[in-house]
Specification:
Elements: H1 2-29, H2 32-58, H3 73-102, H4 111-139, H5 144-150, H6 154-183, H7 187-216, H8 222-233, E1 238-250, E2 253-262, H9 268-285, E3 289-297
Parallel strand pairs: 2-3
Antiparallel strand pairs: 1-2
Length: about 300
């Protein structure tokens, strides 16, 4: 998760500076699209602050109130970020767009807008490249979408989606602004704001879905389950792995529970020794698994294999 902080800090700095310049340009040019873009950048700035706060909270050590730690704080704040993108970013932009389509304002001097949009594309593009490079290092050979769905670190793909939506939104605004000023169609300013709002709503729904899934609890992959089953059943004391239950407490912390059928001729001490061997082997290979609970299960002879 430390690597993702670089992309968050770069996005935070870029969005804060861009938000100020967008609001300034929008005030001078009477552009609803620029105001919407300013809101977009301001919401993104708040989102980065919330993500950093969530990361900090998630690293708090376990205590009596939270015996399994505070790792899911990151998932909670990631979900809040997705709601903010929907409500503040998308909702306000859509509202501004509809108002300026119904009652368009006279177009002002677009020079400031073009200058700000050009700089914004450079800064947002640089932030997007940083986020994409960091995520690309973690996805391996998987496709981008599959890696996003399987990722347990929302701070990585949240920044990626935010920056991607920001760059796409800038091109939408720039295109509508060029056409609107060339053909003197002030309604296109509102159309640009509406399109940016719809874009943000779509992105927020994807992020909310992924963040909700992590908040509710996701387990380890099938490949990891199969490997753990093989490791466990190699132990001489084990008859069969009956069930594996797991959940990510944070991107760097997994809780695992194994229900294991041991050989029925073992005494309590031998079962305990087997449990310790299995627990040690699992932790050695799977460094993210910190809690390993092994529950012995009684199995009748007719189910043996």
């Amino acid at each position: 998760m430390a690597s993702s902080n670089k992309s968050i800090y770069s996005a935070l700095a870029a969005n804060l500076l861009i938000a100020i310049t967008k609001f300034t340009a929008g005030a001078f040019s009477n552009s609803a699209a620029m105001i919407s873009e300013g809101i977009h950048s301001l919401v993104d700035t708040v989102n980065q602050i919330l993500l950093l706060f969530g990361i900090k909270r998630s690293k708090k050590p376990a205590d009596a109130l939270r015996p399994f730690g505070y790792g899911r704080e990151l998932y909670f704040y990631s979900f809040i970020v997705s709601i903010l993108i929907f409500g503040l970013g998308g909702g306000i932009s859509i509202y501004q767009g509809i108002i300026h389509i119904i009652t368009p304002e006279p177009l002002g001097d677009p020079t400031w807008n073009y200058a700000v949009l050009g700089l914004s594309v450079v800064f947002e593009g640089a932030s997007l490249i940083i986020a994409a490079r960091e995520f690309n290092e973690t996805r391996g050979a998987e496709s981008w979408w599959k890696a996003i769905v399987k990722s347990k670190d929302p701070s990585s793909f949240l920044v990626l989606f935010e920056d991607g939506a920001a760059v796409l939104g800038l091109f939408i605004v720039m295109t509508c602004m060029l056409i609107g000023h060339h053909y003197q169609i002030p309604e296109l300013d509102g159309v640009a704001s509406l399109l940016v709002g719809l874009l943000l709503v779509g992105v927020s729904m994807i992020l909310a879905r992924e963040s909700r899934s992590l908040l509710m609890g996701e387990g380890i992959s099938e490949e990891s389950k199969q490997r753990i089953t093989q490791m466990t059943e190699k132990d001489p004391s084990v008859l069969k792995v009956m069930r594996i239950i797991s959940t990510y407490q944070s991107p760097e912390d997994v809780m695992l529970m194994l229900i294991v059928a041991f050989e029925d001729d073992l005494d309590t001490q031998e079962i305990n020794e087997g449990i310790e061997r299995i627990r040690s082997e699992i932790r050695k290979e799977f460094t993210l698994i910190h809690f390993v609970i092994i529950q012995p299960e009684v199995i009748t002879h007719k189910f043996r294999y």
